[in-house]
Amino acid sequence: MMKRKSLVMAAVAAACMTSFAFATPQTQWEQGQWQIDLGAWNPKAEVDADNFYEPWDIQESSDSKWNFQGGLTYGLTNKWALQYQYYGLKTDANGDTATDGDAQEVNLVYSINKNLAAYAGWNRINNDLTDWSNTNNVAQIGLIARAPLAKNLDIYAKGALGTKNTAIWEAGLGYSVTPDLDISAGYRYVNTELADAGEGGLGLRDDANITYKGFIAGLSYRFGGGHEEEPIPEPVYEPAPEPVAEEPAPAPIVKQDYYLDSIHFGFDEDQPLPAEQAKLDRFVQTAKANPQDTFKLVGNTDGKGTNAYNDDLSKRRVDRVAAYAESQGVPASQMELDYKGKTNPVSTNETAQGRADNRRVDIWQNK
User: Fold this and answer.
1) In tens digits, what is the pLDDT along the chain, a chain of 367 residues?
2) How far is it, in rounded angstroms, from Cα 354 to Cα 300?
3) Both 205 and 331 in a single domain?
């Protein structure tokens, strides 16, 4: 009977195998950026009791209990990050079954694009039970995805596969309180191996699994590095004064380029930042209100990467802005397209803010 109770309690604890983050999971960062995660979850476990020989009376589930969650992530580069996570493995007794333990994991995370990231890592599970304890090491790989639903509101999902016959998924909503602070709520599910058939005389007719599931919530705070901050005011072009005509007759009217606005982009992105939508719409309105004028679109990048790559990136950024204007009714003949790559910075490329200023498409109005 004691062996049966210990095995059931082991099942409950082993259910808490792997996770990735407890507040809105990040899919993009910059070198030197830190993220702190704090949260709580409310786990409940169910044992794969059908694989035990009869007539054992197997208790199939524990009661849920709130556990502390915490983690720390550091941006090694603009694509790679290193992450540490800790979470408790405590559940309340359902009858005489309860667990007490913890899990610690280390993941290496790669940003594929602003909406998708992949990770791989190692998870050390410490099961601390009455009359039974063990340490379980799990290798895991997974994906994280997020997409905007509304202003400041994202939907996220993540899934992973690991050793010990482990499968994990989690989904929920995240809300950006500020550019540096997120809160989230979701649901998490884990199915993982409990024990092999015939292991230690435990009375198993086949390999047994357990399922872990429950509500999860938390917050994330970021600091340092080069995440986007409020842009500094854009430089305003002042045309040189027209020379005074020597002849008393009025000089012919000569059109000149006047600076209109700059559309900014994220690192290695050709889609304008969401905050730039108002600038795009203002450009469209100005062009449609002045059909006799032409507009020059000049693409630029920051100083990272090769000349050839940045030339192509600046072209894609200009093409993206021009395509949006055409979709809103601005004829292509009213726009002139130019690409400068990384040769025309407006700020230093030695700081994160300077690089953010340089990732832009400048718009000039010829009138």
Assistant:
1) 334 444 444 443 333 333 333 346 888 878 898 999 999 999 887 776 666 555 444 456 778 889 998 899 999 998 999 999 898 888 887 766 677 878 899 999 999 988 899 999 999 988 776 555 778 899 999 999 988 888 788 899 999 999 988 888 999 998 988 878 989 999 988 888 866 666 655 555 666 677 788 899 999 998 987 544 455 566 666 677 776 666 666 666 677 989 999 999 999 999 999 999 999 999 999 999 999 999 999 999 999 999 999 999 999 999 999 999 999 999 999 999 999 999 999 999 999 999 999 999 999 999 8
2) 13
3) no
Q: How many domains does the chain have?
A: 2
* 25 assigned to some structural domain: yes
d(CA 102, CA 43): 13
CATH, residue 327 = 3.30.1330.60
The DSSP 8-state label assigned to residue 186 in this structure reads E
Give CA 133 to chain center in angstroms. Answer: 36
Rounded alpha-carbon distances, angstroms, from residue 23 to 71, 87, 184, 281:
10, 13, 5, 33
Task: Work out the number of other CB atoms within 10 angstroms of the CB of residue 104.
Answer: 14
The size of the chain, in residues, is: 367
Q: Is residue 82 part of a domain?
A: yes
8 Å CB contact between 359 and 266: yes
Q: Both 151 and 92 in a single domain?
A: yes
What is the DSSP track for 200-247? GG--BSS-EEEEEEEEEEEEEEEEETT---PPPPPP---PPPPPPPSS
What is the span of the domain harbouring residue 133? 2-224
Collect all residues with Cβ–Cβ distance below 8 Å to 342 and sequence separation of at least 6. 300, 301, 302, 303, 305, 307, 310, 314, 349, 358
Same domain for 218 and 70, yes or no, is yes
Where would I find the H helices in the chain?
2-14, 277-289, 307-327, 352-358
- First vs last Cα of the chain: how many Å apart? 90
